[in-house]
Amino acid sequence: MKFGGTSMAGTERIRRVANIVRRQQAAGHEVAVVVSAMAGETDRLVTFCREANALYDPAEYDVVVAAGEQITAGLLALTLQAMGCKARSWLGWQLPVRTDDAHAKARIESIDSAALLASMAAGEIAVIPGFQGLSPQGRVTTLGRGGSDTSAVAVAAAVRADRCDIYTDVDGVYTTDPRIVAKARKLEYVTYEEMLELASVGSKVLQTRSVSLAMKEGVRVQVLSSFIDDDAPPADNLPGTMIVSDEELARIQGDLEMESQLITGIAADKNEAKVTLTRIADRPGAVATIFGPLAAANINVDMIIQNVAKDKGETDVTFTVTRADLARTQAMLEAQQEAIGYFRMIADSKVAKVSVVGVGMRSHAGVAATMFRALADRGINIQAISTSEIKTSVLIDEDETELAVRVLHTAYGMDAE
Ligand code: ADP
Ligand code: ASP
Ligand code: MG
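Above: the input record for the complex with adenosine-5'-diphosphate. Below: its predicted structure, written as tokens.
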């Protein structure tokens, strides 16, 4: 069971969480619980790091930001004990949760489950702070923002859990962020692949890495709400959204005679910035001189368009990077202006990427056409396009994000009654 920041925000909320955990144990399960820091706490700790040292050392940043989860893990164990349950906390370094040494964005390499399994077998509820781990050098690491989801899936895989329930402040995965589109519909099932695409294009309900790990390890994941009453249906009745494999979904659809949806969900991401380089020579190797140095500097490029060459054998190249990388990208390209041979660089961070995702795209034509038509009808201009097998993304003006998501939600017939 994993509980996110809003579920852990304060004594009252933690008591509610403890109640849910206790009920699950009373239903005959052995449970391990992974917790996030209280809502807003990690942001607060990050601010302290910036104030202390603008060019902070990621290893010491990890020491600071991992602290939020230590507090909630201890508080949940105390609350469970106050209810008469046996409970014990296990910090990242105690289990340990072994990670690589990429501070602030570490990857889990293994979790030693022996102590955990022994504790659970003895009837104790194991409480584990999410987000934190231990580097090969024996230092504290963190997994990147939203990383408690990944901690939970990794623990579930390590103890071979029947299920990994991710409790949050919405009761499942919706067709789009229910806080933006009131007509969003809750999905009973989503495939790993679709959830992976949705997460990677901006649905922050699950961290992307948690989904790829669940897919790789075959962990059954359910997303559900912790904001429930005592008489709410138990988690075993699957009240939330189950993340399932393609094959499992096909079976379920067959049993329920459900029709498969063309589009599963829509996500928006305001975290990108657009860079255009004009009048680049249209010759072999020109593009490599742009992206080679960016790759060397560890800057990820997302969407890329190269226009058709105009007269003089010159062309424009447009691409996107994360907003956090924009300043570094500009500095790098400025330094390389002569080598690349562009005329002007234009940067714009007032953009947003809106994506539609669905496995139905593999077998149906016209998904992109519907998207472009619907946006055009509202006068929303498309600045860049990218596609994968089950996703189409467009880059638009940031101010039009919410409108675009709503318009597309209607255009694909996904609005709830
Ligand atoms: P937690 O603190 O529990 O980890 P998060 O804030 O990380 O919670 O994720 C839950 C939030 O994700 C919801 O409050 C919702 O606004 C947002 N969200 C974005 N896209 C979706 C979606 N498709 N379905 C459900 N929630 C979504
Ligand atoms: N507390 C961490 C964060 O805010 C990890 C998490 O909540 O998943 O990013
Ligand atoms: Mg989260």
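Notes for the reader.
The domain at 265-411 is CATH 3.30.2130.10 (VC0802-like).
The two ends are 32 Å apart (CA to CA).
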